[in-house]
Amino acid sequence: MIGVAVMGYGTIGSGVVDALETNREVVKRKVGDDVVVKAVLDLRDFPGQPIESRIVHDFAKIVDDPEIQIVVETMGGLEPAYTYVKACILAGKQVTTSNKALVAAHGTELLALARERGQNFMFEASVGGGIPIIRPFYRSFAGERVEEITGILNGTTNYILTKMNEDGESFESALSEAQRLGYAERDPSADVEGHDTCRKIAILAALATGREVDYQKIPTTGISGIGTLDFEYAKKLKKSIKLLGECRLVGAGPADGSGGAGQSAGGGSKAASATGLGQAGSGPANGAVAGAASGQAGGGAVAAPVCVSSAVRVEGNRCDVAYAEGEETVYASVEPALVDVNSPLYAINDVYNGIMVRGNMLGVSMFYGMGAGKYPTASAVVSDVIEMANHLKTYIRIGWTGPQMDVEPLGALPYPYFVRLKGHATELFGDGDAGKDWQTVSSVKPGEFGVVTPPLAKAALDEWLGSLAAKPGGDGAVLQVIRVA
Length: 485
What we know:
The protein is α/β, with parallel strands linked by helices. The chain has 3 domains: 2-122, NAD(P)-binding Rossmann-like Domain (Rossmann fold), CATH 3.40.50.720; 136-274 and 309-372 and 398-412, Dihydrodipicolinate Reductase, domain 2 (2-Layer Sandwich), CATH 3.30.360.10; 417-484. It is built from 14 helices and 21 strands. The strands form 4 sheets. Strands 7, 8, 14, 15, 16, 17, 18, 19, 20 and 21 form a 10-stranded mixed β-sheet that branches. It has a 6-stranded parallel β-sheet with strand order 3-2-1-4-5-6, with helices on both faces. Strand 12 and strand 13 (318-323) form a beta hairpin. Helix 4 (81-90) packs parallel to helix 5 (100-117), helix 5 runs parallel beside helix 10 (195-209) and helix 7 (155-167) packs across helix 8 (171-180).
């Protein structure tokens, strides 16, 4: 018999107990022995419920019990989860967690601690709920240079954006409905402000590079600033708006926790930032971006920046800049982005998650499924329990080590941007050629219009927007800016 303890009998913890008991024979066939939940740590007593006799309130009854070989942490939060998990590893127990906050904040330390002692610390359920995504990184992608990861990683925000897109609901109305259905917490800030997605993309980036990625260094913007008009413009562009956790990896190694060298997502030469905006009549600024026309365009209109340097390789709707060999950097962001109808992420709706991974040999691979929920998440936890039960005396190579990867904003790389502006296009660009490389989007509301820029680094875009704001009457002209993924 292999003894298991579950710490936290909430939604996920109770799902794990149910899954292990409902599928007892399935698990036994996979392990070759009975896997039995011996104890459940919780503050509550659950009188009259089948679990009542196994409820314990003292952590020592788990950490000091030699018959408990595997511990499942589903309490959430950083404390006491961190303290308890660390103590269990030091006591020689295998540990799995569904807690992305714990993995993002303390994963490097806990992985090292487990590695030193030949124990296992696993976290399949920490990203993507029931979607198998962690295991493919250290198994299926073991020989890949993972170059790009783009994911819809939060079911709450995806549900809200779906309602806004399909039913024309406001953000506030869609959020209220998500809360009523139990998809959003009473305090939804972790979800709607992007913090949950940020931790998840940091975990995936660390798995891909084999080195720690500090989630606190990833620029993060939530969805509370997205409105119904933005979706009307998106539909004109045959796109939708999704909250994406995204990273492009320069110098990424095999996804087996060992690190190494890799390439940018576009293939070929590596990519770096394209920053700076060329002055009118000058050459490319910082080798990346030049002004579209010399002087002012038309009657005081602002010259639009375009991506014109020979250092830039244009591929699809973005351009990459030649990057020096030997450097290792993660370009990452969490933000709402416009996703094209032809993207596999476009059709990921409601509470579902989707994760797109690009490898240098594999190409694009897509993972889709329930990103949250009692039993989907419990299923992922049980997969870890089974793997650890089969490796009680064997260390499984997983995760990452220090030192930290350099993290730069994804906006340092050139992307097109959708910009909503007050006024009319002729007022902005004049009658000349200044805006010829920009796509103008017809207005969905009188007195405003939209444009899609050529690929620009965010610094170049911001400089142009700043020059616009400096014009007479230009203050407040910019209504919205959304990156085109």
